[in-house]
Each structure stands twice: as C-alpha cells, then as structure tokens.
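Amino acid chain
________________
===
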Amino acid sequence: TLDLPAEATGSQRVSPSAPATLSLPDGARLQLPAGSVASETTITVKKLAVPGPEAKSSAVYEIGPGDVKLKAKATLVLPFDAAAIPKNIPDAQVKVAVLTPGEGWVEVPAQVDRTAGRATLETDHFSTWRIFWTGTWASEYNPNRPPVKLQVPYYAQGDSGWCWAASTQMLLKY
C-alpha cells in the first residue's frame, strides 16, 4: 500500500451468494460476481491523493482488503483524465499498472478506452492500481529501488558555485 491520503472512499459488505458493485463518484467501479468471495467481506475502494507531477499520470486506486484472493474474477473500471495525456502518445502506450511488493509498478493487461477516459480489467485479487503512459514516471518508478547517487564534479566553478559544463554533461548522461 501507499501512504497517501484518500480523496474518496467507498466500502460495502459483500456476501458470497450475491453479486456486488462498489462505485466512487469519479466513475471508479469494482464489480464482483456472485461467488467471488469465500465469506462475508467488507470491500473498500479508495482514490488516493497523489502529490506533485505524478498526479498528472492518473489517480491511484487502492482496493482492499489486500489479503483477499477472489474465487471468481472481478471487473475493475478505472477512470482517467484523457486530456492529461499528451497528444503524441499513441493509444497503445496508455497502460494499467498494479503495485507489486518488491517490484514496484507492473503493467497488467487491460482494455483502455482513451475516448471515454477509462480502463477496464479483470482481477482475482485486490491491490493498488493506476493508469500510466509510456515515458511517464510510472513506467520507471520502483519504490523499492535504492537511490542513485550522482557524481557531480566540483571544478571550475569560480564564484558561481556550480560548473555549467559538468552539470549539463550530467543531465545529458542521466
């Protein structure tokens, strides 16, 4: 799970004998067929508040409890702001990812409808999900990756406190 505040939360008690649909006001929706849970379970869907530039990728949705393994696949619909995706990004590069412990964001198969601004997928477990497009931070982000220390040369700075040539070289390299 991510330690982010929730913008919206919905929860519902689900029984094994009946189908259930849990929706948020923004259009996020989880549809569970009858028989998908082994026993009565309270399902929660949270839209998490993502700070900074990462918020442009899409909202992050956390569905729980995380220890529930479904007996039948559920349908998950995730809305996104299609206008936030640059026009030069082809539809095939708009993807859905699940946050996997130890691996970070991992792409999963989904039907992405850019015109409608939603992605639909089937899942047999609850987790944390988001939409991203190739070239955004999500495609390379891994919360478990150790930080990288960049070696910045300290020479020829004079009174400016930095070396423009070394800094430019570092930026081009990384």
Summary: Helices lie at 164-173. The chain has a mean pLDDT of 79. Residues 68 and 116 are 30 Å apart (CA to CA). The chain is about 5% helix and 40% strand.
